[in-house]
Amino acid sequence: MPVGLNRKCSPPGGAMASVGLSFRNITALAPMVRVGTLPMRLLALDYGADVVYSEELIDIKMAKCHRVVNEVLDTVDFVAPDDRVMFRTCEREKDRVVFQMGTADPDRALVVARLVEQDVAAIDVNMGCPKEYSTKVSFLLGT
Length: 143
Ligand SMILES: Cc1cc2nc3c(=O)[nH]c(=O)nc-3n(C[C@H](O)[C@H](O)[C@H](O)COP(=O)(O)O)c2cc1C
Description:
Blueprint (H helix, E strand, L loop, with lengths): L2 E4 L21 E2 L8 H9 L4 E3 L3 E2 H4 L3 E5 L4 E5 L5 E5 L7 E6 L3 H11 L5 E5 L5 H4 L1 H4 L3
Parallel strand pairs: 1-9, 2-3, 3-8, 4-8, 8-9
Antiparallel strand pairs: 5-6, 6-7
């Protein structure tokens, strides 16, 4: 399971050690908050992307989620206690999707990595997004 380090909102994957994924001369869908959801990622794959990033998902919220196999949609859903689906993925992107986690806590990051590892191709750590909505406490706590 490759784990990358993305220190700021910059082109992703720079420090990622790749096992199954190659980051040389590829077309990738960048991580984008509120954009990089499953429909967008599948569309990007349809249009030729080699690798697709999830939006940045915050560890505090993800750590509270449980994994649900959604047999209606044929997806795997990570569902928060308030029933919101925080991350949805599926078999078609399994070898191509990089889960980007926003974290500043190694223990919590490990919990979340373990939660999603069987469903994604790689995990990218974003620990320095400077965007205002990422640094607001309300966003980090998901409230
Ligand atoms: C709407 C939007 C949301 C973004 N969200 C993230 C994010 O969640 N994580 C991240 O690392 N970068 C994020 N970025 C930065 C992009 O991934 C990308 O690095 C940046 O847009 C520069 O890409 P470019 O060099 O192809 O223009 C976001 C950018 C935009 C426009």
